[in-house]
Amino acid sequence: MTKVMTQVKFTIEADIVAAFKARCTSEGASMASVIRGWMMAGQPIGAIKIKTVTRRHRRKAVVQIVSLLTSILDQEVGYRDAIPEQFEQRIESADHTCDQLAEAIACLEESF
Questions:
Q1: How far does Cα 111 stand from its chain's mean position?
Q2: What backbone torsions phi and psi does residue 85 show, to the nearest 5 degrees?
Q3: What is the distance, to the nearest Å, from the Cα of residue 49 to the centroid of all Cα atoms in its chain?
Q4: Among 74, 88, 103, 110, whose Cα sits 20 to 30 Å from the Cα of 42?
Q5: Contact of 40 with 59, CB cutoff 8 Å
Q6: Alpha-carbon distances, residue 65 vs 27, 50, 107 (angstroms)
């Protein structure tokens, strides 16, 4: 496989570039390697993670997690409701999963 070098230029606001550069530096990664990873994977990888620097960011992250868990709970409830009645063990397992998800959601909602 031969490598082809290509130069890419971005026009981005200076404060965004500074924040990106600072984050890459703090994670010990070069900006070029992070951008290359994005381009190869099609999504952010490696150095860029959920930003939890301030309380507002942490609260926003918790809200996103609650939203995701709620979506999973809705899917699990749909799965449980579709199980035929003769499969009691599967129904009990799905009920337990739904209870655990509901409890996790309640705990997270209490935290903010």
A1: 19
A2: -65, -25
A3: 8
A4: 74
A5: no
A6: 23, 11, 12
How far apart CA 50 and CA 61 sit, in angstroms, is 7
Token pair recorded at residue 73: 């709970």
Query: Which of the 8 DSSP states describes residue 47?
Result: T
What is the predicted pLDDT for the residue at 78?
A: 92
- The residues spanned by each domain of the chain are 1-49, 55-110
Question: Coil, strand, or helix at residue 10?
Answer: coil
Could you give the C-alpha distances from 45 to 25, 53, 58, 73, in angstroms and in order?
A: 15, 19, 20, 27
pTM above 0.85, yes or no: no
Q: Is the pLDDT of residue 90 over 80?
A: yes
Do 24 and 30 contact (CB within 8 A), yes or no? Answer: yes
d(CA 99, CA 108): 14
> Do residues 109 and 59 touch, judged by C-beta distance below 8 A?
no
Averaged pLDDT for residues 23-42: 74
Predicted local confidence at residue 48, as pLDDT? 46
